[in-house]
Structures are given as C-alpha cells and as structure tokens.
Amino acid sequence: MLIGNMALAAGSAPPPKAEEEVSEFLPIPPISVAMYNKRQRPNGTMTVIMQLQIEDGEQRTEAEKILPRLTNAYMQETLKLAMNFLDVNRPININMLSRVLQGVTNRILRHEHARVLIGDVAVQKR
C-alpha cells in the first residue's frame, strides 16, 4: 500500500503554481542617526522609516541587489542633515528630507522611476 501511494505521488504532475503577487514597494531598513545641539554634542536620535515605490519589476530587482548601497547613502545623507540643519527642539522638515533622499535614490539607481515614501520620522530627545 505504501509503495502504491509513492508511485502514484511520483507519477502525478505537480500542481500548477499560482502566480506570486509582487509588491511594487521595497522596504528599507529603518535609518537611525544622532541629532546634535548647537555645541555639536549628541542631543537625541532621529529614526526614519521609509520604502521605495518602483513599478517596473526589472528596476525593482536591480534596486534589491544594491539595497545595501542605497541604505548606506540614506544613512550618510540623513546624518549630514541631522548634523547641519535639523534641530532636536524643532519639527523635522520632511520636505527637505524627502528631496535629499530622492536625489540620492535617483543618483544611485541612475533613473527617476523610483519614489521615496517616508512613512514615519520619530525624534527622541535626551
């Protein structure tokens, strides 16, 4: 009986796979950087949660391959802003942050078909 079931299972065709739904959104790991006061001393932490929207599958696959490079560039640009422009005591200028991150994305991916979507920016003051 066991041999008959195995032979039946081996001879049957595999069930057709349902097409996987591919999301056009590519999640980016959260970016956390220190924020500094006027004397250039750490005064808090800013965390940015974001994702990329890329509609073309080939471009999305390419972005997934270089995700560590993108994440590193986002970290560097966010840290530059936190050190030079952003103040832990004032609201974050999300417009400026998104423009800078969009520019980095366009430069690294070498196209303008990816959109940076910022989901949340949290500032924790010391």
CATH architecture: 2-Layer Sandwich
Structural class: alpha+beta
CATH superfamily: Band 7 domain
* Total number of domains: 1
Task: Note the beta-strand portion.
Answer: 25-35%
- Stretches where pLDDT is under 50 for at least 5 consecutive residues are none
Shape by Cα distribution: elongated
Give the strand tally. 3
The profile of the biggest β sheet is: 3 strands, antiparallel
CATH topology: Tetrahydropterin Synthase, Chain A
Mean pLDDT score: 88
* Helical fraction: 40-55%
Gyration radius, to the nearest Å? Answer: 22 Å
Helix count from the secondary structure assignment: 4
Instruction: List the secondary-structure elements in sequence, H or E.
Output: HEEHHHE
Terminal residue distance? 70 Å
Query: How do the strands line up in the largest sheet?
Result: 1-2-3
CATH class: Alpha Beta
Question: Could you describe the 3D structure shown?
Answer:
Helix 3 (67-84) packs antiparallel against helix 4 (94-109). The longest helix has 18 residues, at 67-84. The radius of gyration is 22 Å and the shape is elongated. It has helices at residues 2-11, 57-65, 67-84, 94-109, and strands at 25-36, 42-54, 114-125. It is an alpha+beta fold and 126 residues long. Helices cover 42% and strands 29% of the residues. Strands 1-2-3 form a 3-stranded antiparallel beta sheet. A hairpin with a 5-residue loop joins strand 1 and strand 2. The protein has one domain (23-125): 2-Layer Sandwich (Tetrahydropterin Synthase, Chain A).
